[in-house]
Design goal:
alpha+beta; Structural Genomics Hypothetical 15.5 Kd Protein In mrcA-pckA Intergenic Region, Chain A; Pseudouridine synthase; four-stranded antiparallel sheet
Length: about 300
């Protein structure tokens, strides 16, 4: 597999200058690669010697990739925003800059990953990959017969029907549920739709990694074997998108009958929901603000 990168990107990655400025340096003959005057389109590979105006520039050191598993307590908010009290980053207090993979409701506890590997985040979160997440749930009253069948076959929430899931009853008001989606407060909403209030919710497994004996509020580094399996399971994933950027439209119909009309007149109300992932690195200054304005004007 070709591990080389464009020469202008290599120069830019060292922090020496921008890619455009690197192109200009190359055009002016001020860049050497392995003692040869560089040309536009040259590529850098590990071991190559690059000089700019007679000075050797070196490849930037990459931070060691970090993958940790945290047993998040209830009351901690899954956000990287430092101004929010009780945010997960301050709670973990890791010496390196890390961020959570996905979310876990503030009221819920359980397993969540944190990392500094930006490439793996969207691969894990992408719903199309159908990665399993397992939870232990306790509701406020004994469940009726047929509850498990209704939950496992799909429940109407958030203008959609949830994907089929696995349910294992563990008591009159407790059960295990394994889902492959990540809708906002999905399990709580599913239970509420069937008339039950969730008292406690704990995530015990994400994909191949279980919470095991990890104490509440503590974290550990994933083992090399766990990381290898994790990466293998997302190897074929599209890392750049979580969902289609196209709008989903859910249509609701209302039928009104006019007194003098022989046939009812049907109005169709369309509700559009935009589900797009915005990569902050690719947003030009001001463009996110423009995006929000356009969304409000629709």
């Amino acid at each position: 597999m070709d591990s080389s990168i464009s020469l202008n990107k290599f120069i830019s990655d060292t922090g020496y200058c921008s890619r455009r400025e690197a192109d200009q340096l190359i055009k002016e003959g001020r860049v050497l690669i392995n003692d040869q005057i560089a040309q536009m389109g040259n590529r850098y590979d590990v071991g190559d010697i690059v000089e700019v105006d007679g000075s050797i520039i070196k490849a930037p050191k990459k931070d060691k990739l970090i993958y940790i598993a945290l047993y998040k307590p209830a009351g901690i908010t899954t956000t990287s925003e430092s101004h929010i009290p009780g945010n997960i980053i301050d709670f973990v207090n890791h010496p390196k800059r890390i961020f959570p993979i996905g979310r876990l409701d503030k009221d819920s506890e359980g397993l969540i990953f944190l990392t500094n590997d930006g490439d793996i985040v969207n691969k894990i979160l992408r719903a199309g990959n159908k990665h399993e997440k397992e939870y232990e749930v306790r509701v406020g009253r004994p469940v009726a017969e047929g509850f498990a069948a209704k939950m496992s076959s799909g429940v109407q929430i958030l203008d959609t029907i949830t994907a089929p899931c696995k349910i294992q009853m563990t008591g009159r008001s407790t059960f295990k549920i394994t889902i492959t989606q990540g809708l906002n407060r999905q399990i709580r909403r599913m239970c509420e739709a069937l008339g039950y209030n969730v008292l406690t919710l704990k995530r015990t497994r994400i994909m191949n990694i279980s919470i095991g004996n990890l104490p509440l509020g503590k974290w550990r580094n994933l083992s090399d074997a766990e990381i290898a399996i994790l990466k293998a399971s997302v190897a074929d994933s599209n890392k750049t998108s979580l969902a289609s950027p196209k709008a989903k439209r859910v249509f609701k119909t209302e039928t009104k009958v006019k007194p003098d009309a022989e046939k009812p007149v049907t109005k169709v109300k369309a509700k559009a929901k935009l589900e797009a992932v915005i990569d902050p690195k690719k947003i030009k200054p001001g463009s996110y603000k423009d995006f929000r304005k356009k969304g409000k004007q629709r």
